[in-house]
Amino acid sequence: MNVAIVGAGAAGMMAAIKASEKHDVVIIEKNKTAGRKLFITGKGRCNLTNACDISEYFDNIPRNPDFLYSALYTFSNEQLMAFFQERGVLLKIERGNRVFPESDKSSEIIKALTRELEKRKVAIRYDSEVTGFQMKVDHVEG
User: What is the dihedral of CA 56, 59, 65, 70, to 10 degrees?
Assistant: First the structure.
């Protein structure tokens, strides 16, 4: 494996999906299942994102909005919605521009992510905990 990601939460799964475009990836997850916290977001309905214009995000970030600028423009809320819709998840927009799966089931989001991981041959090591790491650096004379 070329890339190891700690945690099969939403961020870990999305990072693994992206990294798998160029690398072999393994996710190390201490729980028995992926996306455990996603089950409870939005009272079990999974509030994915907000459908407002991306520029409005910065007005609602209380401290240091510039910190998120590159992240929000690299993979926007619209791209996130398209990602799930392309994988068969129907979405709906509710009061306050909150975006949920049409089914109101967070499990649909988790299934879409895990299917994508399987498709990309990302390995997940469940019931495994990272207690430390060691980095090997190959020195290149220049």
Answer: 10
The C-alpha atoms of residue 75 and residue 89 are separated, in whole angstroms, by 18
- DSSP state, 40? G
Residue 10's pLDDT is what? 94
Question: Could you tell me the two tokens for 79?
Answer: 């791209």
Distances (CA, A) of 9 to 6, 27, 117: 9, 10, 12
pLDDT at residue 1, as a whole number: 58
Q: What are phi and psi of 77, to 5 degrees?
A: -60, -35
Q: Which amino acid is at 108?
A: E
* Collapsed DSSP state (helix, strand, coil) of residue 20: coil
Within 8 A by CB and 6+ apart from 73, the residues are 54
Q: Across all residues in the chain, what is the average pLDDT?
A: 91
Strand partners of residue 98? 50, 94
pLDDT digits (tens, 9 = 90+) for 60-72: 788 887 888 888 8
